[in-house]
# Entry
Amino acid sequence: PAVPEFLGTMVLERDALEQQRRTALADWVSSPDNPLTARVMVNRIWHGHFGAGLVSTPNDFGLNGSLPSHPELLDWLARQWWDQSRWSMKWLHKQIVLSRTYRQSSSPRADALRIDTDAKWLWRYPRRRMESESIRDAMLSVSGRLNLKMHGRGFNLFDVRGGLSGFRPVENYRDEGLRRMVYAHKVRRAREAVFGAFDCPDAGQSAATRRVSTTPIQALNLFNSVFTLEQSEAFAQRVQSLAGEDIPSQIRTAYRLALARPASEDEVAEATPEVRDHGLAVLCRSL
# Structure
């Protein structure tokens, strides 16, 4: 039991027990003398916040992988992650999201676009399309129906578990089905009916990065799904409970809940006849 010589010198006795072998391997992987583990993990967490890692090939730090865009930053974060927190992911998330780099505006600048179109050098926060799970959870949160229960058995996206085919997507979710998407029981090679269009990876394989597309199917799935219609009705009920029957107040409340900003006077004027003639749920569905 050992590791390849080019990776180190960790060697055990030939008759070492299974538990000893596993412990030795775990200690070797997580040792502060092994810089790769921390650098890879820091890069993955950075990728989660910015949509791209400091190394753009998160599964390959070898000769075939990309060079880091900010090598000193990657090494500093990896070192600090060990020295300051002993592998605390909460600490690392906090360092990133409280940084000036993360808190930048995403607005473009003509001079910078000429030099760095993709914002690889992080002169602005990269604008990103939300992931499928975040879209669903945000809709449930805004409608007031999100179930924050933690742990336990996941809820079903399809009518059955097991088997190789014949999975019918669930359309009407209640109780457990309104939990966060991280608790969804996925089926290999089967896409969720509405949010599967948002490039959620096949559950049968590991995906270091997600393909990000913007297609008409995504908009049509969202606008016409039973899920959206149900959340629009729930959202409308929530707005009415907060704003009463005054239509301009309802519109302002809906905008603030859905978009986290005030509605402009033009938006209120445009939405008022729609809400009056077709109901508040129509506005909620659009938002």
